[in-house]
Amino acid sequence: MKQYMSMPYLVCLSSNSVDMARNIMNVVSAACSTFLGGVLIIATEFVMITGIIAMLVLFSPITMLSISLFLGSMAWMFQSYFKRKVTRSGEVYLEATSKAWKNIVQTFLVIKDLRVLGREENVFKDFCKLREQLFQVEVIQKFTHFLPRYFLEIVFSIAALLFCIFIFKFQEGGSAKHLALLGVVGVSFVRLIPSVNRILAMLQIVRTNIPAVEALKNSIHANDKFKFKQEVSSDDYLPEEQSGLILKQVSFVYPGREEAAIREINLAIHWGESIGLVGESGSGKSTLVDIILGLLSPNSGKILLDGEELSKRLIVWQKRIGYVPQNIYLCDDTILYNIALGIPKNELDEVALFKAIKLSNVESFLGSLPDGLNTVVGERGVQLSGGQRQCIGIARALYHDPSVLILDEATSSLD
To answer: In whole angstroms, what is the distance from residue 311 CA to residue 303 CA?
Structure first.
């Protein structure tokens, strides 16, 4: 979770939120619990089996080594036959799970449109196909999990029969010695069957979860270099009497695209000025705003903050920005939480909070809400109007008294 939250914004843009949620919850669980648990069980049972076989070898070395070789070859054949099928089922399960979650999340995000267009049944059919695919994979996994038990019972029965034939026909000694050896072997087999069964079953489970472990490993390796921002010292501030923010010949190209989103932009924003960015859709306004915010780094050109490279003072710059995006996302929580987003209740600055509420005009509708600041806004703020959501977004930006305010069509839903 921490690595995903701290990775660069450009990486976030190319990542799917459902896949990240799956990795955080399901994949971590599969890797830490199922996979590692299976490995530990295999190691424990292997030690037990080794000890039993070593004891049996002392009674009849040639016979026991022959039986061990027979049983080992049978187990190897079983694993070799199912190895690729089980690993592939894990890959399909991981992929189908991701698609099913995307289907569920996206369906309820556009449920209004689906209702109006009358296309719910088509989307539901897509989900049913994914669920059927998951069911088929689960059947394969369950089958390969329980199959070793019956396979081993047959194999051990054959081994016991061959052992009896060998003992009474080829082994020297009296009946009492033969019966004693049979008794030791019989008791050992009773203990060996469950152990070998668990090893084979756990091997299937481990192989099933290999794709999940690989996905987790790749995710960790890709994001382990990213860190959270450091806190800004109270002594580190943005002086408002210097040159401001200067963009020189700034260009940016999104990965995988040939056409530049913005090209050779020159812009000077001085302290105390109000600057408006105007242009048609797709002209790069939002990209330029993301660069100014420090979320994207230009492919060429320079950005200077009071004469110094912005990258050297990025944390200070971002801590002093109040940003109201074009699409304001509200969490399914209270108005208070959505304004103070990420700040614990015991650390809230009430003076700053009520100042932001007043300046953003949130106070104009608080009185009409049943619980005031503690009113739950619903998922994506569906309990509020578009204008009310924008007011809360503005209050969120104003809460920490920013030195720079960036508004991306922040009043488009306000009267």
So the answer is: 8
CA pair distance 212, 26, nearest whole angstrom: 9
Query: CA Rg, the chain, in Å?
Result: 33
Instruction: List the Cα angle 267/270/275 in 5-degree steps.
Output: 65
Alpha-carbon distance 274 to 93, whole Å?
53
Write out the DSSP string of 51-96: HHHHHHHHH-HHHHHHHHHHHHHHHHHHHHHHHHHHHHHHHHHHHH
* Residue 293 neighbours by CB distance under 10 Å: 18
Q: What is the biggest distance separating any 2 CA atoms in the chain, rounded to whole angstroms?
A: 107
φ, ψ of residue 378 in degrees (nearest 5): 85, 170
Which residues are CB-neighbours of 63 under 8 A, at least 6 positions away?
A: 163, 166, 167, 171
Write down the pTM of the prediction. 0.63
Neighbours of 264 (CB within 10 A): 12
Contact 114, 125 (CB under 8 A): no
Reading the block at residue 377, the tokens are 């806004």
DSSP code string of 291-358: HHHTSS--SEEEEEETTEEGGGGHHHHHHTEEEE-SS----SSBHHHHHSTT--GGG--HHHHHHHHH
d(CA 205, CA 37): 10
Q: Cα angle vertex 98, ends 92, 37, to 5°? A: 70
Is the CB of residue 124 less than 8 Å from the CB of residue 187? Answer: no
Q: Which amino acid is at 22?
A: R
CA 185 to chain centre: 50
Hey, which residues does 376 pair with through a beta bridge? 334
Mean pLDDT value across the chain: 77
The SS3 of residue 375 is coil
DSSP assignments along 346-360, one per residue: GG--HHHHHHHHHHT
> Which residues is 265 bridged to in the sheet?
250
Q: CA torsion 3→8→14→16, rounded to 10°?
A: 30
- In this prediction, residue 209 carries a pLDDT of 72
Residues 6 or more apart whose Cβ sits within 8 Å of residue 21: 101
Residue that the structure tokens 């087999």 belong to? 189
- In this prediction, residue 228 has a pLDDT band, given cuts at 50, 70 and 90, of very low
Element (H, E) at 393: helix 386-398
Helix axes 350-359, 386-398, angle to 10 degrees: 140
pLDDT at 413 over 70: no
